[in-house]
Specification:
There is one protein chain. The protein has about 425 residues and is an alpha+beta fold. Among the domains are: about 40 residues; about 80 residues, DNA Binding (I), subunit A (Orthogonal Bundle); about 70 residues, SH3 type barrels (Roll). The chain has a seven-stranded mixed β-sheet with strand order 10-7-4-5-6-11-19. Strands 17-16-15-14-18 form a five-stranded antiparallel β-sheet, with no helix packed on it. About 20% of the residues are buried.
Length: about 425
């Protein structure tokens, strides 16, 4: 994987090899400009001969593939993993706020429709992903000189994905057309029969979410089934219950969260990058197979960049993950483990402390005696919690607790809200 280079004025030049970058740094002809992605800046005047650089972007709702190519050589490739917890965090904040307002607070008149929304408004969960997609496109465009941008977009017809035979006025009707409520459509679809016990006579029927809403399930009729009151109990919702097992067996219930996001970002890409070359997945797949590349996000990005023949393809690629660094919840619905009294004085839990003894949340550290590299996710009195990139705790050998003492940690870099891991392609 090539190293990005800046000239003395801070303008981008052609990326160089890792060997050349080490030599320049050792001889004092360059200094480190940025650690992630690793970039150096020259300390002497040099020629500025440049070749055409193509940047391929594989947009997505969960992962973004990025690649930089030039003269049939892959200079850089990587993936960005976007956050998927924005909606759940907002829901949690909503619950805390409502309970706080109803707990010995002054009366206040309810406010409705007091938020101004423009035509470009998006829900926070979508807006977060749109903003960070544009952020990384702009970031990589600033690392190479006069790049040619290639972006894959998607256009989806959600109604046709649900019913391939839909046509004409059926788009206005929907699945539940002609039924008083969605529940009656679900009853009729399931022939007024409980889907757990198979009984229908003399039973009071209810609708049940196959994937619980607390686990990300939606209110779509595809996620609803008919159950009777004998089966629809709190016991059956718990682990080992019939409904819980049903959820485990139907984890692949079709969800339609990604198509609306891809439709929304497509219009915004056209408006923000009018000179970019756009393509679609139907064109990317056959071209990728011609190049002999496996199905990955960064390989799709290589294909999207318009490369026709690969002469050089590095084995290393960069994984970038977003980290939720700031935890602002001071009022908690229930006291956390270890806290004997409710949080009545707005004291932040020690795990939410942003820094401790020179270390900050999400710092990249090395654990002495263990040899593993991880990221700080929280602090305790005298120690910290360290997780690897896969979210697993790194602990001291022969110890059962998760905390790692500060004296066993060596700081590698501050990362702010992003985690960077160099991986090898299989």
């Amino acid at each position: 994987m090539r190293i990005f280079v800046m000239n003395m004025r801070g303008d981008p030049l052609m990326p160089c090899t890792q060997k050349k970058a080490r030599i320049l740094l050792k001889e004092g002809k360059a200094v480190i400009y940025k650690y992630d992605p690793f970039t150096i800046q020259l300390t002497y005047a040099t020629g500025e001969t440049k070749q055409d650089c193509h940047i391929g972007i594989d947009t997505g709702s969960k992962h973004i593939g990025m690649a930089i190519t030039s003269e049939n050589k892959v200079l850089f490739k990587g993936e960005i993993e976007l956050r998927q917890d924005v909606k759940s965090n907002i829901d949690t904040k909503h619950i805390y706020r409502r309970s706080r307002r109803n707990r010995k607070t002054r009366y206040r008149q309810p406010r409705f429709l007091n938020r101004k929304r423009s035509d470009k408004w998006l829900p926070p969960s979508l807006q977060n992903r749109v903003d960070h997609t544009f952020h990384w496109i702009d970031t990589f465009c600033s690392l190479v000189s006069d790049p040619i941008l290639h972006i894959e977009v998607g256009k989806f017809d959600t109604a046709k994905m649900i019913n391939p035979e839909i046509n004409g006025v059926d788009y206005q009707h929907g699945q539940t057309y002609g039924f008083f409520e969605e529940r009656y459509f679900v009853f009729a679809r399931d022939n007024y029969t409980c889907q757990c016990c198979g009984k229908s006579k003399d039973k009071i029927l209810q609708t049940h979410h196959i994937i619980y809403r607390s686990n990300g399930g939606t209110d779509r009729v595809d996620n609803l089934i008919t159950v009777c009151t004998d089966c629809h109990t709190s016991k059956n919702h718990q682990k080992g219950g019939i409904l819980y097992k049903w959820q485990e067996q139907h984890k692949k219930v079709k969800q339609y969260k990604e198509p609306p996001f891809m439709n929304a970002i497509r219009k915004r890409i056209f408006a923000r990058y009018p000179n970019a070359h756009t393509t679609y997945g139907s064109e990317t797949t056959p071209h990728r197979k011609e190049l002999g590349l496996e199905k990955t996000h960064y390989n799709d990005a290589i294909t999207i960049s318009g490369i026709t023949n690969i002469k050089e393809d590095p084995k290393e690629w960069l994984l970038i993950k977003q980290f939720r660094k700031k935890k602002r919840s001071l009022h908690e619905a229930t006291a956390r483990k270890g806290r004997k009294e409710p949080n009545c004085f707005q004291k932040r839990n020690s795990k939410n402390t942003p820094f401790y003894r020179g270390f900050y949340l999400n710092d990249k550290v090395k654990v002495f005696g263990h040899g593993q590299i991880g990221y700080i996710t929280g602090f305790t009195s005298g120690g910290a919690y360290v997780k690897n990139v896969d979210g697993e705790y790194i602990t001291i050998p022969n110890k059962s607790y998760k905390q790692v003492s500060i004296k066993y940690l060596k700081l590698l870099s501050h990362n702010n809200n992003w985690q960077y891991v160099v991986k090898s392609a299989v």
